[in-house]
């Protein structure tokens, strides 16, 4: 074994051994950047030996910023002798290594060379067969994951699945088959990647569809289980009302109040400009957000990740905003009002959550990364529904005694309280807009939290933080959900909110 390790060291003098990639985590505190040169993930390393050769194959994902110069395999015997065979550059390299000794133990390693670095997979142990013995034919099998449907609208939906393949050949094509809306088994190829995703954009409103994943090998076509979904009903115009909210069909919007230094900003989704992303009321006097309003639905979900593109909001003069390229002074951190995790449908949509107008100074470990983060997660996990959940996140200033500084040494007022007000249908799947529902078909609640550094890092959201929406209206002077006249803002049932 010592000889084999010495040989590999001499063959590959610069070997970063990390084979997996990092994770930013789930909170909104500033992340630690990773080195892209150290991101190469290996999987499915296989060795199928005969008496004098081995069929080697693997898969890898190189996530660095350089071109892959070479990839292949190295086969090393116990006595230290080694054979290296380069393969055609591919994320699924495969080749046959000949010239091996019968009945001998070997280690197989896949390697990737990029940017002057050599990356190695974990070794695969195998023993060659007796002289003249042939390997048994491999049993072929494709196993699919559960198929996930997300981002449903009246005319679109995103489907995703993955699969694993075991066998001597390769998958030559994979994708989805769609049936419904007058179509039957319409094929949409996703290539040969083991993770499949496709967004349908020409579906009919309020229509049921069946979809299943498929994978093709030289011997047969394999199918996953069928998933059934129904597109949303076509949008219905809200009734006229006395609301001062600018867009009557956006049930989450509070009334616009004329107030010195308050600015109202409405961001549409960059990836789908007919759909709203979120709306803001921002105070240039306090250099802090007053409220942020959004709709929560699977159609805003996805896997965009954290963009971390901190920048001024282009909808407002930068002179009115805090400079938050780095975080606030002292103990305060950049707290998202609309969290990065709330907008994962695309990188462009996620990028808007990093505008400075969407920030408020928050204690990090005791609040932003603790109890507040738990509330954000609870909302997505417990209250999201197919009818859409409407959320307003706000900062309240009972006084202006506590301040901090931005990166230009300008004063930012620290909120004394943070809150969220929520509205949705009770059943979660009526298929109707909320303004068409009666009060007994709707549920409202508020979460009211004092902003301080006295929360335990393990503190959880309990019923003590629940209040009627009307209570938060009294504290803030705002009017919530004016476009939904039947919203039951004066009462709530804690059981409706899993307490």
Description:
The chain is mainly beta. The chain folds into 3 domains: 2-127, Immunoglobulins (Immunoglobulin-like); 141-230, Sandwich (Immunoglobulin-like), CATH 2.60.40.10; 262-497, Extracellular Endonuclease, Chain A, CATH 3.40.570. It is 9% helix and 37% strand.
Task: List descriptors.
499 residues, mainly beta, Immunoglobulin-like, Extracellular Endonuclease, Chain A, 7-stranded antiparallel beta sheet, 5-stranded antiparallel beta sheet, 4 helices, 9% helix, elongated
Q: What's the structural blueprint in terms of helices and strands?
A:
Elements: H1 2-11, E1 40-49, E2 53-62, E3 68-77, E4 82-87, E5 94-98, E6 105-114, E7 117-120, E8 124-127, E9 141-144, E10 148-150, E11 157-166, E12 173-180, E13 183-189, E14 195-200, E15 208-216, E16 221-223, E17 227-230, E18 262-269, E19 272-283, E20 288-296, E21 332-336, H2 347-351, E22 359-363, H3 364-383, E23 389-396, E24 403-405, E25 411-413, E26 417-425, E27 442-450, E28 466-467, H4 469-476
Antiparallel strand pairs: 1-2, 2-5, 3-4, 3-6, 6-7, 6-8, 9-11, 10-11, 11-14, 12-13, 12-15, 15-16, 15-17, 18-19, 19-20, 20-23, 21-22, 23-26, 24-25, 26-27, 27-28
């Amino acid at each position: 074994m010592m000889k084999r390790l010495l040989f590999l060291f001499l063959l590959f003098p610069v070997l970063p051994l990390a084979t997996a990639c990092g994770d930013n985590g789930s909170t909104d505190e500033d992340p630690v950047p990773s080195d892209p040169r150290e991101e190469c993930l290996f999987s499915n390393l296989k060795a199928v030996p005969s008496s004098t050769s081995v069929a080697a194959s693997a898969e890898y994902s190189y996530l660095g910023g350089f071109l892959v110069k070479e990839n292949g395999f190295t086969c090393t015997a116990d006595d230290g002798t080694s054979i290296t065979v380069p393969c055609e550059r591919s994320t699924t390299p495969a080749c046959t290594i000949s010239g091996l000794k019968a009945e001998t133990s070997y280690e197989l390693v896949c390697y990737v060379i990029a940017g002057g670095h050599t990356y190695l997979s974990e070794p695969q142990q195998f023993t060659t067969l007796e002289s003249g013995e042939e390997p048994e034919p491999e049993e072929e099998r494709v196993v699919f994951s559960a198929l996930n449907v997300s981002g449903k609208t009246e005319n679109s939906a995103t489907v995703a699945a993955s699969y694993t393949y075991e066998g001597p050949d390769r998958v030559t094509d994979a994708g989805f088959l769609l049936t419904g809306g007058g179509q039957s088994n319409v094929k949409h190829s996703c290539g040969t990647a083991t993770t499949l995703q496709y967004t349908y954009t020409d579906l009919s409103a309020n229509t049921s569809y069946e979809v299943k994943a498929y994978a093709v090998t030289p011997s047969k076509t394999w199918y996953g289980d069928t998933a059934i979904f129904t597109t949303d009903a076509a949008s219905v115009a809200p009734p006229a009302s006395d609301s001062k909210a600018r867009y009557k069909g956006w049930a989450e919007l509070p009334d616009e109040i004329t107030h010195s230094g308050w600015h109202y900003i409405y961001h549409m989704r960059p990836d789908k400009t007919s759909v709203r992303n979120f709306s803001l009321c921002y105070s240039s006097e306090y250099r802090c957000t007053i409220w942020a309003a959004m709709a929560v639905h699977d159609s805003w979900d996805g896997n965009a990740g954290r963009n971390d593109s901190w920048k001024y909001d282009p909808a407002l003069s930068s002179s009115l905003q805090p400079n938050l390229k780095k975080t606030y002074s002292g103990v305060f951190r950049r707290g998202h009002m609309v969290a990065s995790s709330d907008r994962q449908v695309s990188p462009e949509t996620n990028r808007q959550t990093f505008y400075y107008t969407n920030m408020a100074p928050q204690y990090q470990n005791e609040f932003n990364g603790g109890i507040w983060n738990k509330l954000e997660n609870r909302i997505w996990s417990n209250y999201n529904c197919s009818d859409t959940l409407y959320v307003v996140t706000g900062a309240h200033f009972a006084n202006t005694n506590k301040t901090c500084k931005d990166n230009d040494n300008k004063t930012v007022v620290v909120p004394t309280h943070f809150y969220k007000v929520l509205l949705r249908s009770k059943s979660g799947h009526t298929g109707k807009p909320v303004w068409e529902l009666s009060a007994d078909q709707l549920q409202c609640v508020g979460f009211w939290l004092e902003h301080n550094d006295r929360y335990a890092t393990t503190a959880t959201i309990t019923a003590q933080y629940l209040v009627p929406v009307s209570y938060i209206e009294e504290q803030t002077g705002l009017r919530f959900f004016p476009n939904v006249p039947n919203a039951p803002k004066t009462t709530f049932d804690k059981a409706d909110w899993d307490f």
